## 1
Amino acid sequence: QVQLRQWGAGLLKPSETLSLTCAVQGGSFSGFYWSWIRQPPGKGLEWIGEINHSGYTKYNPSLKSRVTMSVDTSEKQFSLRLKSVTAADTAVYYCARLSSSSTWGQGTLVIVSS
Amino acid sequence: DIVMTQSPDSLPVSLGERATINCTSSQSVLYSSNNKNHLAWYQQKSGQPPTLLIYWGSTRESGVPDRFSGSGSGTDFTLTISSLQAEDVAVYYCHQYYNYPLTFGGGTKVEIK
């Protein structure tokens, strides 16, 4: 049963860069797309983008200019960087595999505050 | 972008009664090449990540109780909980994976009446 473990800084100042990493444990890394999704406090889900084991990416156009995703196949990890954050980027960030047998990380609350 | 609209926003239901959640997509999510609806339903309990209930519009994820069912095609979909249990209190989201960007509905909060 695949599990996702994620980590990264939880408190940022405006204009800083958000950086999160997700490790895939107990399952295959290749052959799937790995997503990042965020959820502002008390609100709904927003898909940020996805990456596969080859590094092929798809980003949400609403965030594309600030997002970079990368992959480390040897470690079975994938990462998210979101630059120039503002208070509007405050949210719980999840890594996930959205296919059947969907799996999500535990979530990381990222607060942007001066 | 495909806009997913859910109704109602909040749904109070008595224990043992039926709960019905609707989801409408701004364009069809029925993919002609595989004749499948690229539509999923997620359940999110307080303080937890979402969990997958239904995919392809009506296929129940392994381990999901059979009181949960999905129906519909094209642009109109329904998630039904046939007999509400206390552990079903949660927010439910529909999600389209027909095209990019992937999008979610705004959520329906199911609570006990």
## 2
Amino acid sequence: DGGITQSPKYLFRKEGQNVTLSCEQNLNHDAMYWYRQDPGQGLRLIYYSQIVNDFQKGDIAEGYSVSREKKESFPLTVTSAQKNPTAFYLCASRRTSGGSYTDTQYFGPGTRLTVL
Amino acid sequence: RKEVEQDPGPFNVPEGATVAFNCTYSNSASQSFFWYRQDCRKEPKLLMSVYSSGNEDGRFTAQLNRASQYISLLIRDSKLSDSATYLCVVNSGSNTGKLIFGQGTTLQVKP
């Protein structure tokens, strides 16, 4: 089955620790995105990547880092510099080639991060 | 002003009711418009794209008014399974594929 996977589903972190959230897709999509969702709020863009080895900051990139070494993978690291990291983190991907242009993004199941 | 604004609700309706959600957006350069559905503690899933001519998918009808920068979603004959949060989404108007999400409108359909 094609899709987007995120792991782990739940993650607990102590203050001062860095953690890395995994996002993998086998949809052959070029573009990938990381969002953060807080209760009662819309999704906010952290980072995005339109092609391998290239990524751009979103609206709330401070305290986060990413890499895009493979088309299938776009891991997100939440660093100790992120002041309020407890949130629901969602990864998405989008097809940008091989046919008509689309803005439609497809989401993975998310990772719930809690800082203890 | 938020880039995408929705009435957060909640909308509490009985089964079989017709319910309408509204959304306004501020960026006149936006070209793509969507409604996503998000169940509690789950990821958003695409419900339907919204086209200028309006479009329908079963019990769901979406409308777009570019002049007023207004998007709507109409759900007819509500089912218990329609209970969810509905997200209004527009693109940023750039070629990056960036999407702007509303905070969502929560629907609770009751027996």
